[in-house]
Amino acid sequence: FQGGDTCEYLLSSGRFLGEKVWQPHSCMMHKYKNSEAKNCLIDKHIVFIGDSRIRQLFYSFVKLINPQVKEEGNKHGNIPFEDKSASIKVDFLWYPEVNGSMRQRIKSWTEGSVAKPHIIVVGAATWSIKIHNGSNEALAQYKINITSIAPLLEKLAKSSDVYWVLQDPVYEDMLSESRKMITNEKIDAYNEAAVRILNSSSRNSKARVKVFSVSKLIAQETIMKSADGLHLPESSRDTNAMILMNVYCNKIMKPIDGSCCQPQPPLTLIQKIAFCFFTLSIIGYLIISLIHRNNYRKNKLCADLESGEEKKPAISTSDVSTLEMLLHSFCKLGLIMTYFYLCDRANLFMKENKFYTHSSFFIPIVYILVLGVFYTENTKETKVLNREQTDEWKGWMQLVILIYHISGASTFLPVYMHIRVLVAAYLFQTGYGHFSYFWIKGDFGVYRVCQVLFRLNFLVVVLCIVMDRPYQFYYFVPLVTVWFMIIYATLAIWPQIIQKKANGNCLWHFGLLLKLTCLLTCIYFLSYSQGTFEKIFSFWPLSKCFELNGNVYEWWFRWKLDRYVVFHGMLFAFIYLALQKHQMISEGKGDPLFSNRVSNVLLFISIVSFLTYSIWASSCKNKTECNELHPSVSVVQILAFILIRNIPGYVRSVYSSFFAWFGKISLELFICQYHIWLAADTKGILVLIPGYPMFNVIVSTFIFVCVAHEISQITNDLAQIVVPKDNSTLLKRLLCIAGFFSGLHLFSAMQDQSRH
């Protein structure tokens, strides 16, 4: 199913999501703000010609430019509108019938050097039906008149956008006696005549009058809410005006969430180089595979006819297998990236807007929770936050976040606030996990740092190249990367304090707490000093990584939103490991974490705290105010969950293998959803199978999860090759990587220059 001519779909087909949200077939419609409408229509002249229904459309269109405009003045006369700040002129010309007068007005724009309107919207028929009492002679005359006007409109369409608005159906039961002759049967006959005659002589596809027929579909659903049975309710004509704005402005403004009428973006220089690289990788892998297979056949073990001894293969080197693995990984990655590009950059597959309902969010949540509980197994170890448990935690959180994104639940504030806690919990685990590793093992080597940075950033760097997106666009990866480096710097700088050293002298514990206090002070200072933060990240080359839309504000906002939770994770790890070292907690199978009395008290406090936070989050009225409190209070629910999950011995001893499986690929799931599950950079939903929403979600989800799992395997394989343990080899690889990013920066600069 091709997404092809989305303009045609936008003008002719669609359906309602709920009562007021219109979903065009195959593409996404952007909701234009007044400032965006002005920027698009600057120095433009728009003309609406027709009867009272076109006048309604005129007013709805004008209100997109200036919401303060009131519907007043002579209803049966011309109505001018001008926005001097943007030099926009919008005129309504009263021509209720398709006749000689209308023809003369349209003809005046085709002659001489008269300035032509940039957009012309025409439509009329109901007056002809009413005045002539629905006679067949009137219909015949209508056909003659529209036949004489059609060539003029087609001539104007060569330089202007011309739209013919088909007549909407009426609600016959509500029509007044003077309008009873206006029947839907008559309207259909007039519409059929207009469609058949318009563009009949035009062979040039660019010089065509665009038939605005989608209004009929909208009216069929909403005309019963009309005040008089003839004119559309306000919400319906506002939808028509927004469609008109999308048809004209999307190709100019290129909004991310407006895929209708947007041309496919041209390939950039970097994308072309990436395409060549992946193509060569595929060819190279095929050649290596053929050579390897032929060598295997020639040198396979066989009995020597003379001595009876076995001959060993002549060729069997690790270099060949490493090269083959490298090319095999890039071959698979190239095919996967092709799918990414086709899904979210080419106009091959359809995209639709999100639409939130409570059932679309909560029913899938209940479903996956039941599945998760069904796949319950015993853990290999019963320590607090053991590997299986953290994988399980990441898994169910990731699934909830995915459902949150595809259902568009961000519009519902209580859900949004709880999802913010899940994102904070990921960062809490970052602080807990990396602190625990450095504290226990004391491994501050370059190899460890490079391994972590590679695994975190490999997929995002590839997507930045293939999908032509800035690094900061995938905000979560820059966030965890920066926090990992902060944790590393905090513990690695002199004096290096690790558990082994601290066990010999308790004063080292205070030294570590002093380090953590300094870290907290720096976080607090940067969170309230936006200028300092922006100066730090505005220096080259950091600015190349953290700028989005020309500034680092988005990065500051993302960082500030969960600024304390990584510190909380580090502090929790320190306290937990200290309690564990001094044997103040019991982690045996089936044993409560503390004594029965203490465990019961802590469990009660945790449950109350967990519910209290949920009540507070559910009662939020203002997103900005709640976001201000979130960094300080999100840790309450996170700690409450950890204690509820780990204090009872039985609960700590089991985990969900279903959630844990997803937890192992949670990072890949989070990143891949941007382009092959959602669409238009997460603003919409990818549609592989139109007309069957549930089946579409099942198919696209299956592909999405398989791709995420495969990318996880590719990343692990490449990490072993690109980041070797040998320091001298690793240094050479790092120089190669530095050269790669220098080249990438050079090509990026050339790309930006060519765009400007």
From TrEMBL:
Cas1p 10 TM acyl transferase domain span: 253-734
InterPro entries: Cas1_AcylTrans_dom (IPR012419), NXPE4_C (IPR057106)
Entry coiled-coil feature ranges: none
Any matching Pfam family: NXPE4_C
Annotated transmembrane regions: 269-291, 355-375, 396-417, 423-440, 452-468, 474-494, 506-526, 561-579, 600-617, 659-679, 685-709, 730-750
GO BP: carbohydrate metabolic process
Glycoprotein as UniProt keyword: yes
Reactions that this protein is recorded to catalyse: CMP-N-acetyl-beta-neuraminate + acetyl-CoA = CMP-N-acetyl-9-O-acetyl-beta-neuraminate + CoA; a ganglioside GD3 (d18:1(4E)) + acetyl-CoA = a ganglioside Ac-O-7-GD3(d18:1(4E)) + CoA; CMP-N-acetyl-beta-neuraminate + acetyl-CoA = CMP-N-acetyl-7-O-acetyl-beta-neuraminate + CoA
Any GO molecular function: N-acetylneuraminate 9-O-acetyltransferase activity
EC number: 2.3.1.45
Keyword Cytoplasm among record annotations: no
Membrane topology, record value: Multi-pass membrane protein
Subcellular location: Golgi apparatus membrane
Entry GO CC: Golgi membrane
Keyword vocabulary terms for this entry: Acyltransferase, Glycoprotein, Golgi apparatus, Membrane, Transferase, Transmembrane, Transmembrane helix
EC supergroup of this enzyme: transferase
Every NXPE C-terminal domain range: 22-92
Family listed: Belongs to the PC-esterase family. CASD1 subfamily.
Name the UniProt record assigns to this protein: N-acetylneuraminate (7)9-O-acetyltransferase
Species for this entry: Campylorhamphus procurvoides
